[in-house]
Amino acid sequence: MKNNYSIWVAEFANVPKYPLSGLIYGAHNQGHTRLPYCYVVIKGHGHIAMVDVGYNHKEYGAVLATIYGARDWHPPREVLAECGITPEDVSRIFLTHAHFDHMGNIEDFPKATFYIQERELSKWVWAMSLERRFRWIMGGIDPADILRTVDLARQGRLVCVDGNREDVLPGIDLHAAPDTHTWGSMYVRLRNDLSPNSQNAWIFAGDLVYLQENLQGYKADDPEYIPIGFAMGSQFNLLMTTDELLKGVGGDPRRVIAIHEDRLKDMFPSRLASNGVRVTELALADGEPSRLG
Amino acid sequence: MTEQVDDRTAAYAAVTLPCFEDLKQAAAQIAGLLVLAAAGSSAAAPDHPLITAAAQVQRQAEDALRSARVSKAARVHYEYLSRASAKLARVLSVLGAGRDALPLLEGVYADLRAASRALPGFQMLDFERGCCGPHRAQAVVR
Predict the structure, then answer these.
(1) Residue range B68-111, pLDDT digits in tens
(2) What is the mean pLDDT of residues B10-38?
(3) Nearest CB to A153 within list B29, B38, B113
(4) A160 interface with B at CB cutoff 8 Å
(5) B131, A144: Cβ pair inside 8 Å?
(6) Inter-chain residue contact B125 with A60, CB threshold 8 Å
(7) pLDDT tens digits, residue range A174-202?
(8) DSSP 8-state code for residue A56
(9) Has residue B2 got a pLDDT over 50?
(10) Can you list the positions of beta strands (E) in chain A?
(11) CB-nearest partner of A136 from B27, B102, B129
(12) Which of A2, A55, A150, A156 is a Cys-bridge partner for A104, taking CB atoms 3.0 to 4.6 Å apart?
């Protein structure tokens, strides 16, 4: 199978014990799981792109580490080095949504152009006008991130996408998933054979899917969709989007990449570097050396 | 921050926490409008109702700050919060005059961030309600 892009999932931090009920709707009192924080690195056609950028340890690392147990945070320079690249090499970044652990580190990528759904920004701005008692809605949003995007926009490095957009890079499409996990969530579909009817497609789902259970349920012989445990929009929209995700990869749940899924490292070749950074290799373009050593 | 504070400081914090939250929200509203405007969004307009709302919130915060009884341990915090409020008023004035408010708004955030570090309980980002931020158990009121 010919690949036009190399794809890695890089883990930059983790929470050792996260309640399953936050990840799978209705999984109350079913214990905890390890929750990795990752971003996706894509290399090919003269570009290096990423899906999401993680969070800013300088601002939040101490709080997350000391109060909540998040640990092993590594800066992008250290993480990307495991894929042989630097933050300055990254030219395109696709932000799946505006939560701090997905768009909280944009300042570390000085040459990248960022893509986000306009609805994600405009609805958050609207939400800020609501009374304080609605503050649950603003959870996970860092106002400082919004401020930083002003600079990006003025530099012409912010692209507000309205709906779907095909071929933002050859074979890479952005898909809107409105009123799901957030108001303007987005997922990225990569057609690694560049074909419109791709037989080699991957989907990077952001937080539309947390675990394989969201895609397949608990019974392999009788699969069902189970939404994630956190929807700003509706569970129905999440289910319909889940169906769309699976259809977008020809029905193979392994190709819907959930960056908080700890078992990703068991589903694909993976390496834990001596510095604690984990890189999982999904695909290699022709001539690209493996980063698994 | 997890250290204990004295009773007077706790009383001060109870009064000023809503001010802090209001200032943060008003600043975020303005930042959001600046983003939309810079990105060429039709949702942004100079007479957007959010600006009026932000001005009202700023005035409320200013009034509340004036009435706060500042303990010795809270002086630095109060100074940052007062500065943030004053700068936000200037942001609104600059916006009204059609000038660039971004540098001043960055100053508001810097002061709010400094205030958040000066006393416990004043968080710039609410981790309790984030989706992938680990949740802590909270008391349930019945």
Answers:
(1) 999 999 999 999 999 999 999 999 999 888 888 999 999 999 99
(2) 88
(3) B38
(4) yes
(5) no
(6) yes
(7) 999 999 999 999 999 999 999 999 999 99
(8) -
(9) no
(10) 6-19, 32-44, 47-51, 92-94, 113-117, 158-161, 165-169, 172-178, 184-191, 201-204, 256-257, 270-272, 278-283
(11) B129
(12) A55
Put simply, the chain A residues between 17 and 76 with a CB less than 8 A from any chain B CB are: 17-19, 22, 35, 37, 59-60, 63-64, 67-70
* A272 CB within 8 Å of a chain B CB: no
Kindly tell me if the per-residue pLDDT of A141 is higher than 90.
Answer: no
CB contact under 8 A, B133 and A132: no
Rounded Cα gap, residues A136 and B128, in angstroms: 9
Phi, psi (deg, nearest 5) at residue B100: -75, 120
Taking the C-alpha atoms of residue A268 and residue B77, their distance in angstroms, rounded to an integer, is 50
Beta strands at A113-117 and A158-161: parallel, antiparallel or unpaired: parallel
3-class SS of residue A13: strand
pTM for the model stands at 0.89
Instruction: Indicate whether B138 pLDDT > 90.
Output: no
Do A143 and B31 lie within an 8 Å CB cutoff? yes
The pLDDT value recorded for residue B50 is 78
